[in-house]
Amino acid sequence: VQLVESGGGLVQPGGSLRLSCAASGFTFSSYTMTWYRQAPGKEREFVAYISGSGDSTNYADSVKGRFTISRDNAKNTVYLQMNSLKPEDTAVYYCKRLGSLSWGQGTQVTVSS
Fold first, then answer.
1. How far apart are CA 35 and CA 56, in angstroms?
2. For residue 71, which of 9, 41, 60, 78 is within the disulfide window of CB 3.0 to 4.6 Å?
3. Using an 8 Å Cβ cutoff, are 105 and 96 in contact?
4. Chain centroid to CA 58: how far?
5. What are phi and psi of 25, to 5 degrees?
6. Do the beta carbons of residue 102 and residue 36 sit within 8 Å?
7. Residue 95, CB half-sphere, CA atoms under 13 Å: how many?
């Protein structure tokens, strides 16, 4: 299992970012994919998941209505569209395959004016 996250950066409050996670080493469309995040000094926390077919999603209450998870099984990629970003969204964001112990390197998202 290999996961490579990208798309992070510095954005002002209220702004948007789209994260990507390119996956390889397994049959991507067969697995639920998840996004997690870890803020400085805090434990890693669940953000969202999407089923293998893409027809089922779920979100943490803190991001519901602002973030959207999606996937392109033809490209072996899962996305996280983040809108209306808040300073408390600042964290390193990771994608993970459900049931796997492997993590990518993460991508830093900083929300600040």
1. 14
2. 78
3. no
4. 12
5. 95, 0
6. no
7. 29
- pLDDT the model gives residue 65: 97
Residue ranges of E strands in 1-113: 2-6, 9-11, 17-24, 33-38, 45-50, 57-59, 67-72, 77-82, 91-97, 107-111
CB of 88 within 8 A of CB of 41?
no
Structure tokens belonging to residue 39: 């803020």
Decide: 82 and 69 in contact? Cβ < 8 Å.
no
> Quick one: which of 89, 91, 95 has its CA closest to 70?
95
Q: Read off the pLDDT of each residue in 22-51 and give the average, rounded to a whole number.
A: 97
| pLDDT tens for each residue of 54-105 | 999 999 999 999 999 999 999 999 999 999 999 999 999 999 999 898 888 9
Tell me how crowded residue 71 is: count the other CB atoms within 10 A of its CB. Answer: 22
